[in-house]
Amino acid sequence: MSENVAILGLGTMGAGMAVNLLKAGFSLTVYNRTASKAQELVSAGARLTSTPAKAADGASIVIGMLADDIASRAVWTGKDGAIEGVGQGAILIESSTVSPAWISELAGYAAQRGAELLDAPVTGSRMQAQAGQLSFLVGGNDSTLQAVTPVLRAMSKDIFHLGPIGSGAKMKLINNFLCGVQVASLAEGLTWIERSGLDREMALSILKSGAPGSPLLGAISSRMVNHDYAVNFLLKLMTKDLNYAQIEAAACGVDLKTAEISRSLFEAAIAKGYGDEDMASVIEPLRANQEEKR
């Protein structure tokens, strides 16, 4: 493949994305704050750089997959940030779940360098990233999207073009708002089941096959039942996403009351030390509270 691609951030999602780009034959440069996490990728053929600017230097496509606005801003525009290394005509892809306000600002920095920006957050978690089965939610120019489609296709099953810059970020926040509320309500519902005397497996079978059923309910309920909190989606990141969703919805005159309630459950779990666990662990403080009341 002729494209030189750079990935900034090798966390839960970025590492899997990088593996699939290498499998597809792209020349890949990577940057990660903790360099040791890149060693397997280096062994597979990636080039590791010491700064984001060096990663972006010479890359035709630069992809960010970072935790939040703060991390994204630091990697793109901080000291030795990627913007410093971006060449004219490069295409930048911000795949992090960040605020539309930051996307708009980042687009301005890209334009100053003669580069184009797409906001292209993803749906899916660690397993989908590893399997190349993500869905990209894209905002930006259609011609820019067409130019990077082969790269995105190597990491995904679907690519949705939602409109101008910022559209992908908005759609991702709506998606994660609905996911976060469902996970929080499942945590409450499952705790209720466990304390009600009902057969838990039968109750969950009824829920999964009935109207409340969804792929998310099936996956998260299994993790909750098995106390399996290996990270597919970090609990603290869902908390952040619900906060961003509330801010963005408020700008449209919508008060996300259920996001506020759900976020309080995630914040309680962070306070109990579950922030770096999978978001399914949001149930544990509820279980503990119920035990204390017994």
Label this structure with key terms.
294 residues, alpha/beta, Rossmann fold, N-(1-d-carboxylethyl)-l-norvaline Dehydrogenase, domain 2, 6-stranded parallel β-sheet, 3-stranded mixed β-sheet, 14 helices, 9 strands, 14% strand
Overview of the molecule:
The chain is α/β, with parallel strands linked by helices. It has two domains: 4-164, 3-Layer(aba) Sandwich (Rossmann fold); 170-293, N-(1-d-carboxylethyl)-l-norvaline Dehydrogenase, domain 2, CATH 1.10.1040.10. Helices cover 54% and strands 14% of the residues. It has 14 helices and nine strands. It has helices at residues 14-23, 39-43, 52-56, 69-77, 82-85, 100-112, 126-131, 142-153, 167-196, 200-209, 215-226, 235-251, 257-271, 283-293, and strands spanning 4-8, 27-31, 47-48, 61-64, 91-94, 116-119, 122-123, 134-139, 156-163. The strands form two sheets. A six-stranded parallel beta sheet has the order 3-2-1-4-5-6, sandwiched between helices. Strands 7-8-9 form a three-stranded mixed beta sheet. α6 (100-112) links the parallel β5 (91-94) and β6 (116-119). α9 (167-196) packs across α11, α9 (167-196) packs parallel to α14 and α12 (235-251) packs antiparallel against α13.
CATH architecture tag of the largest domain: 3-Layer(aba) Sandwich
Strand order in the largest sheet:
3-2-1-4-5-6
Pick out the low-confidence regions. none
Tell me the total number of β-strands: 9
**Main sheet makeup:** 6 strands, parallel
Give the arrangement of secondary structure elements.
Layout: E1 4-8, H1 14-23, E2 27-31, H2 39-43, E3 47-48, H3 52-56, E4 61-64, H4 69-77, H5 82-85, E5 91-94, H6 100-112, E6 116-119, E7 122-123, H7 126-131, E8 134-139, H8 142-153, E9 156-163, H9 167-196, H10 200-209, H11 215-226, H12 235-251, H13 257-271, H14 283-293
Parallel strand pairs: 1-2, 1-4, 2-3, 4-5, 5-6, 8-9
Antiparallel strand pairs: 7-8
Helix pairs in contact: 9-11, 9-12, 9-13, 9-14, 12-13
